[in-house]
């Protein structure tokens, strides 16, 4: 799933609830300069443990950025 960038003011990654699937979910940041091109894999069950919020339109899980970077497994880096 593509995510533009983390929400920097509170260091959260908003992941749309409808995009989260059982099993592994690939997360790719497309607009954050320091994370662009990196893809992280997190289990859907792990993502669903975090509180639901909204991005103003749709329900999203608020996953701390540190969790994505530490627990997520970088599976590739595009050039």
- Strands side by side in the biggest sheet: 1-3-4-7
How does the major sheet shape up? 4 strands, mixed
Order of helices and strands: EEEEHEEHE
β-strand amount? 35-45%
Rg value = 12 Å
Number of E-type strands: 7
What do these coordinates show?
This protein is mainly beta. The protein has one domain (2-77). It has 2 helices and 7 strands. The chain has helices at residues 44-47, 65-71, and strands at residues 2-3, 12-16, 24-29, 38-43, 52-54, 59-64, 73-77. The strands form 2 sheets. A 4-stranded mixed beta sheet has the order 1-3-4-7. It has a 3-stranded antiparallel beta sheet with strand order 2-6-5. It starts with a strand and ends with a strand. The mean pLDDT is 90.
Secondary structure blueprint with pairings:
Layout: E1 2-3, E2 12-16, E3 24-29, E4 38-43, H1 44-47, E5 52-54, E6 59-64, H2 65-71, E7 73-77
Parallel strand pairs: 1-3
Antiparallel strand pairs: 2-6, 3-4, 4-7, 5-6
């Amino acid at each position: 799933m593509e995510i533009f960038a983390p929400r920097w003011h509170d260091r959260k990654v908003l992941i749309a609830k409808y995009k989260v699937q059982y099993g592994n979910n690939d997360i790719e940041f497309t607009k954050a300069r320091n994370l662009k091109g990196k893809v992280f894999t997190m289990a859907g069950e792990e993502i669903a443990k975090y509180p639901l919020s909204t991005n103003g339109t749709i329900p999203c899980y608020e996953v701390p950025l540190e969790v994505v970077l530490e627990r997520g497994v970088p599976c590739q880096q595009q050039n």
